[in-house]
Amino acid sequence: MNHGWRAASICTRLRPPFVRPGPPLRALPVPDKTRWLSFVLIDGVPARHQLQVGKHRRGISAISSQLHIRAGTPDHPITISSADGRVRVTFAGHVVADSGEALTLMEASYPPVFYLPREHVDFAVLERTSHKTRCPYKGEASYYSVHAAGRTAQNAVWSYEQPFDSVTAIAGYLAFYPDRVDSIEKLSTIGEP
């Protein structure tokens, strides 16, 4: 059955309305830090309503038992939540960190990272280094080396001491590279002191 339609005539009829010359492309402005807080959710409420940037900040520790923060961008999401159970880090037979208050940070397609509070880390075996890196989503990281039982792990620990507002929950917490320490274990709290 021939309706008199041809592919060429359909394309010719559809092309002009859909292909039009437009204005030249221009760079989009980079949003300020307070706009990024609209991507951050704390208990389902945008952080800009809870943290009040530039004024009094509601303490993250007050809601740490229910902590669930979403940050980043739609194509590079970051989620921060309370780690269930204890997290223990060992190096050269020494417990470097042990905490029941660790945070889990999941970023884009990277493996999850545990961030532990400073007060639960043994700083007697850590030495701050001059190494620094910068993440476009979290800010500048400072590094520490671990020294124990005659072994050294260079730049095995990092910390965002003044992270961007969207990930302020990890401020001062420390994270460990799993390939530079002996183990990072997630333990259940059952039977633990």
Rg for CA atoms: 24 Å
- What is the mean pLDDT? 77
Question: What's the order of the H and E elements?
Answer: HHEEHEEEEEEEEEEE
Strand content: 35-45%
- Overall geometric form: globular
Helix content: 10-25%
In the sheet with the most strands, the strands line up as: 2-1-3-4-7-8-12-11-10-9
CATH superfamily: Domain of unknown function (DUF427)
In whole angstroms, the N-to-C terminal distance is 82 Å
What does this 3D model show about the protein?
This protein has helices spanning 7-18, 33-36, 47-51; strands spanning 41-42, 45-46, 68-73, 76-82, 86-91, 94-99, 103-107, 113-116, 126-135, 139-148, 151-159, 174-176, 183-187. It has 193 residues and is mainly β. The chain has one domain (33-187): Domain of unknown function (DUF427) (Metal Binding Protein, Guanine Nucleotide Exchange Factor, Chain A). The strands form 2 sheets. A 10-stranded antiparallel beta sheet has the order 2-1-3-4-7-8-12-11-10-9. It is globular and about 45 Å long.
Comma- or semicolon-separated keywords:
193 residues, mainly beta, Metal Binding Protein, Guanine Nucleotide Exchange Factor, Chain A, ten-stranded antiparallel sheet, three-stranded antiparallel sheet, 13 strands
